[in-house]
Each structure stands twice: as C-alpha cells, then as structure tokens.
Amino acid sequence: MADDLVLDTAIRNWVLVPLSVVMVLIGILRYFVSKLTRSSQNPDAKAIKEGQAVIRARNLRSGSHLIPSKSFRSRRIYFTNEENGLLYVPKEDAQKAQAQMFQDPNMAMDMMKKNLSMIIPQTLTFAWVNFFFSGFVAAKIPFPLTPRFRAMLQNGIDLSTVDVSYVSSRSWYFLNLFGLRGFFSLILGEENATDDAQKMMQMSGGGGFGFNASQSLGVEKDSLDILQHEWALPKMEHRAKDVLKNLAKKL
Amino acid sequence: MATQDRSAADLPAIINAENLQSNMKSIYYSRTFLSIIGGVVAGIWGFTSFTGFVFYFMVMLAASFGLAAKAKFSAGSYFDSWNRILLDGILGGLMSFVLFWTFAYDIVHIF
C-alpha cells in the first residue's frame, strides 16, 4: 500500500457508474413487471371465511386479558369445540385442501413467475458483467481484506502483488446486488419485488394467499387451547395506584 | 418509576399492532436513509478500514438517540420494547453503507 494505484477515469465513466445505474434500473423494471404480471386471484369465499376466523381468534387471544374468565371460556369454546367450532377442521377436509392446493395450476404458475422474475435478471446481469467487464481492476474498497478473498474478488486479474482491496467489476456487481436492497425499499416503498427472501417467507407462511388456511386454522386453535387466561382487572387497582402516585408526585 | 415498571410488566401490554408496525417501518426507513447518507459522507471524507465502520456505528448510535428523543424517551408508548429503538435494523443497513461508502470513496479519492 506504499503507493496507490491510479485507476483510469474511463473505468469510472464506463464501468462503475453504468453498472450501478443499470442495476438500479433493472430493479425498478422488475418491480413494475412483477406488478403487472401479478395475476389477480378471485378470492374464494371459504378461504376468506377461514382467514377472518383466524383473525378473530387472534384478536381474542391478544385481548384475552381484557375480559373476565367466564366470557373468555365461552368464546374459546365457540372457536375451538370439536363439533362446530370455527377453527375446527375435520381431518379429511384438511387433506382435501392440501391436494387441491397442489392441483391448482394458478398457484404454481404464480410461484414460477415470481422465481423467474428473480432469477432471470440476476443471471443476465451477472453474465453481462462477467463477459464485458472482466480482467481489470474496477474499484477499491476502502477496507483491507485478507488474501483469502483474492480468488473471489479479483478473478481475472492474476497478479499476486495487487492489494486485495482492489477488486474487479464482479465484486462491484455483488456489492450492488446486496447494497441496493435498502435503496430500493426507499424509492419503491415497502412491498417491492426485490425483497425476495421475505416474500418467500410470507408465501410459505401463507396468511393472505389462503395458501394453507386449514393449517393456520389448526395452529390458531392450538394456541387458543393452551392459553392461560388471566384477567387484568384485579391488577388494575395497583396500576391505578401507581399512576395516581406518579401524578401526585409531579404535582 | 420502578414500581410502575414492575406492575406494568405484570400486565400484557395493550398495543395496537398496526401502529407498532408503522412505527417500526418508519424506523427502518430512517435507518436505511441514514446508512446511505452516512456511506456517502464517509466516502467523501475518505475514511478507510476501521474508521469507516466506527463511523457507521456512531451514525447508528446517533440515530438511536434521535429516535429515542423523537419518542420522548418513553419507548413504551410507541413500541413494545427499547430494543426496537436502540438495536433494530442496525446491521441491516450495513451493506448499503458499504456500497455507498465504496462508491463515494472511489469517485473522490481513487480516480
């Protein structure tokens, strides 16, 4: 690091900046393409009913301390009894729902579309970068790295004397890939298509899609069943006492 | 204050989940924005190696303090715990910071 390399300004004008601009534009393009291709699903009445039941059960669970034990128990029975409780799903129904899910071509289609819109641009950009911008130093990262990173960050350079912090354009591409995520969430808003990892999680969690509604019904039923009910009112006196005490102290 | 904390801890918190989510979202946005701006500033000032990361964490500390001040130092009325203000999303902005740090540093100091 005795003397810094001087990089050609042409590299900045024709590699560094264009690469970033292209990746931002691709991200925006993907956002709008995925917005356009998102097929509008006709919500089916049963799925919505189940979803609402889950939401109601969840509200009961989170607000359980606000109602007396007796009221809570009667509501719980309304939700979870084994004959006609809202959350109770007969065994064969659950299996049927699952089979239906696998048969539904729309669902698979949607998933494939999402995956493709994620994979294709990335592969293309990576190939583009590798093909056109390899074999020279494109940037210098401002922190030192150990020589182990050389093979990864300096592919196509093959000079062991160059400091590892000088990296080729491929590493600049990866830096963009990971670093622009926050930038996208700022310019495109919350539900942007670039946050693929989160989307996958949501999909497998499956609330809004009616994806495995019967399963979420079962989960909700279980957590409602094991809830230890505690009414908050008896303790409220203590709390009121504290609040009043604080108030008195302030005055 | 201590007694109030204890009795408040006994009770399940009464929290509007949607508002909590919106508060967390605004924290996320401000942290992302700050990490990008901080990266550009660090690059222009020419921080290298360790100094840059120290700078990032100082920016995040300042952000935590600012958010706490914005919440009037009572996290309980906006969030379910102090960690939401102090710690959430600190590492999430690191990649953005490194990207913009490298970018500004290269443009200003290398070329």
TrEMBL record, chain A:
Membrane topology: Multi-pass membrane protein
Keyword field contains Aminoacyl-tRNA synthetase: no
GO (cellular component) term, any one: EMC complex
Leader sequence segment: none
Keywords: Membrane, Transmembrane, Transmembrane helix
Subcellular location per the Swiss-Prot or TrEMBL entry: Membrane
InterPro entries reported for this sequence: EMC3, EMC3/TMCO1
Membrane-spanning segments: 14-33, 116-139
SMART domains: DUF106
UniProt GO BP: protein folding in endoplasmic reticulum
Record keyword Transmembrane present: yes
A family per Pfam: EMC3_TMCO1
Family statement: Belongs to the EMC3 family.
Protein name in the entry: ER membrane protein complex subunit 3
Species in which this protein is naturally found: Carex littledalei
UniProtKB/TrEMBL annotation, chain B:
Main location as per UniProt: endoplasmic reticulum
GO CC entries: EMC complex
Location(s) in or outside the cell: Endoplasmic reticulum membrane
Topology within the bilayer: Multi-pass membrane protein
InterPro entries noted in UniProt: Emc6 (IPR008504), EMC6-like (IPR029008)
Family: Belongs to the EMC6 family.
Protein name in the entry: ER membrane protein complex subunit 6
Species of the source: Carex littledalei
